[in-house]
Amino acid sequence: MGTVPRYDLDINRFSVDPYPDLKELRSCAPIAFIPQLNATMITKQEDILEVGRRPDIFSSQLPNSLMNRLMGENLMRRDGAEHAYERNIVAPAISPKKVSEVWRSQFQSNADRIIHDLQPRGEADFVTDFALPFCAESLKSITGLINVRYQDMDAWSQAMMDGISNYQGDPVIERRCQGATSAIEAALDEMIPRALNEAPNSLLGAMIAAALPIDRIRVNIKLAISGGQNEPRKAIAGTLWALLERSEQLEAVRSGAASWSDAFDEYVRWMSPISMVPRQVASPVTLRGVDLAAGDRVLLMLASGNRDEEKIPFADQYDVKRDKVRSLSFGTSPHFCAGAWAARCMASDVALPSVLHRLANISVARDKKIQISGWVFRGLVNLPLRWTPN
Known about the structure:
alpha+beta, five-stranded mixed β-sheet, 16 helices, 12 strands, 10% strand, globular
């Protein structure tokens, strides 16, 4: 039994590259209090899984969290029967069956249209010119907000993700987030009377059909937009970058030695787009010999668990032929990401094979710098590419 060790972080450096600090934490202080965040980080995979299995002790209900304050208490901030009830309402709209029968063809249509427009150009920033519109147009269909521009869908997502990771308390970031949530509510007010006729297969259609109260619809659509745009956009761009920078990995996929799904799953393990999820200690508990008190806020560092050397050999390497491991990329236990099947389909079945098949001689533009950032939500900010135009 003992008190929580203290570990000081340079947050700016951590945002640029969190992996050196996470490696040191796993080695020296797997459970450590971070004074700069007023929270305790949990960095070992087995501990993260243990916390995920004990929602009675480690609660998702964080009444004072940034997400609750800025977006409202959505599915991610509920446990037990309340969480299960609403999850069961939305699950059919993004089930493997619905993804295969309804959404995949729409994803492919979106990809084909964007690639057709890009082909003659011979170069582009893949993040802004493909991944952003592709994911946003696809998310419009899934959410049911077909009445908005894809540019707004992306801007709203980014504003909310910035807001809920605004641990430094920047008022400009908070105002931008509040503006996004207000705009989403206005779009919902316009779409709700039309959704059952115009978007019956969507998340919005499913919640209206189940007579979910309007306030619950609003918070859960905000949740779907926040992660449903930001994370697939980063994961698709990141997987393509990882393959293009490693010719042997790309050849393994093209030859059939590994699948597009292998490439995507390995990327979200190696460079976890969702790097952290918070929990709050509901009652006193001891974990790995460290005492945690009721009310303590803990940060489950998925990015660290996904590179835990004790569980994953050569964890810092991107390897599409890696033996399957219990990746934490889509969360744990009851809060496993409901949109995982849609994200995998967007990336593995549609975006990656379509881009690499149709853009001839595609490569990373070496004269332009690639930026990667974030420790709560991490990924490429840009990806300059060139190919042979036609």
